[in-house]
Amino acid sequence: MDNLASEQKQIPHNLPVSPQPFVDREKEIREVTQALLDPYIPLVTVTGIGGIGKTALAQEVAHRLLEQGQFAGGICWLDCWGSDNTLDAILRTIQTTLGLGGTPVVREEVRRYLRTNPCLLVLDGYDAVAQDMELLAFLERMPEPSKALLTSRQDIRLHGWTLALDSLTKQDAVRLFVEAAERHEVEVPSEQNPLVAEICRLVDGVPMAIQLAAAQAASMSLDTLRQRIAQVGLKVPSLEATLRQSYSRLSERAKALFRRLAVFIDGADDKAVENVCQVEGWREAWSELVRFALVREQNRCYSLRAAIQPFALKLLEEAGEREKYEERAAEYFLALAQFGESKLDTDEADIGIAIARNKRGNMLAGQEWYWVHERWEEVIAYGYALDRLLDVAGFWEDRLKVLQRAVEASKRKGDAGEQARLLHNLAILHHELGDYAVALGYYQESLAAFREADDRFNQASALNNLGSTYHVLGQMEKALECYQQALAIWEKQLGPEHPQVAVAVNNLGSVLRDLGDLAGARPYYERALA
Description:
The protein is an alpha/beta fold. The chain contains 26 helices and seven strands. Among the domains are: 2-164, P-loop containing nucleotide triphosphate hydrolases (Rossmann fold); 170-236; 251-320, Arc Repressor Mutant, subunit A (Orthogonal Bundle), CATH 1.10.10. Helix 6 (133-140) links the parallel strand 3 (119-124) and strand 4. The chain starts with a helix and ends with a helix.
């Protein structure tokens, strides 16, 4: 038993917390588990209508397999309705979960790992990405011995084994109703089970409908509820009305935490919740929100459910707190971004990379908030910190947007020095992306701004990089001219023996070599090596 527990701890996974309440469905769990452990079945799909319990079943099966020590290579949960909506996004989550690195995505490395280590990929809501032919091809060629478990509202007809999930049995339906009612502080005595069974029959034994009916039992008797459903069907209130009903039953402390959690784009850890939300005893309030199924916790990341967040943000607005707590979040994540950036040149660089990967959405939202409120200094500060963080983490598109916004902020602030440095960083990014023509324009613009600011050192940096771009584009004479100007400035400012001077000297040798002037290139190479 100890060996099994040890093996389970070592299996990498990112499974969400098991759903509560969860009814038995032992027959379906057994069938899905047997299919996943069958060496001749690569893909298992669970289908059924919305609300039938596909996600809950997949979570329960995955957790039991983890407890049994199955799929020792790792179990990876993928939310196809959320961020895992492309093959690259899915592979990035797999790489991160299985400890293969987050970015850049290396497809063959993932395939090799899946081929040599038994893994389980759980794609929840696969119908959201069913039209992605690239992802389909990946699944169709799932490397053995790894497996995939998919949930879908529609029959997607992939090769493998499919379970069509049906309504709950009478016994399971009654149990689910009773447990759901208890979450709304309604106790159902056992003598009323026949009445509960009739209510469950009227809603076709669908788990989501049963839970909605159980929630309404908080405001009317079971007999009244049964009669109403029998006469006009289950009146499912709008999501907002349902949420307001749950919200009204919360303590004031839990209400405050619920509202303020809305400022986090991709969840928050303990420190962020404590520093931003300012709710004393927030952990007890969190437990209260969990009981009402309003929030979720995964790997110590606390967040509202995606469908609920807009409602919480509306409540934050109604309470007159939105500006205050969005500003607190923007301030907190700016400090976090700067802290992460400061770690990149130390032996703790992994801390900075982890911050970039796990807090990216919140940091981007922080810069956006400052942008909307015309806080140019903070927009620029985010630009510098995120430029490096997103660079090392490989989030090129986000890095581009961050820098473009910071450049515009520097223009509106009227700071020529900031503008020149940010334009230079933007040029470097475009050069790295292979957009040489675009990079050329930004280098030229940054050079003009450095000259306006009388920043001689960075003029040389811009000239050197401008020469590099001309070099790549094959414009050797222009490259030679830029390198010569950069060398002259650095020699004067840094002295002839400085390493930066050696870089410019080596670049000059490279251009002369590519021009066919080997004799002219040689002394530059010799000087660079000296």
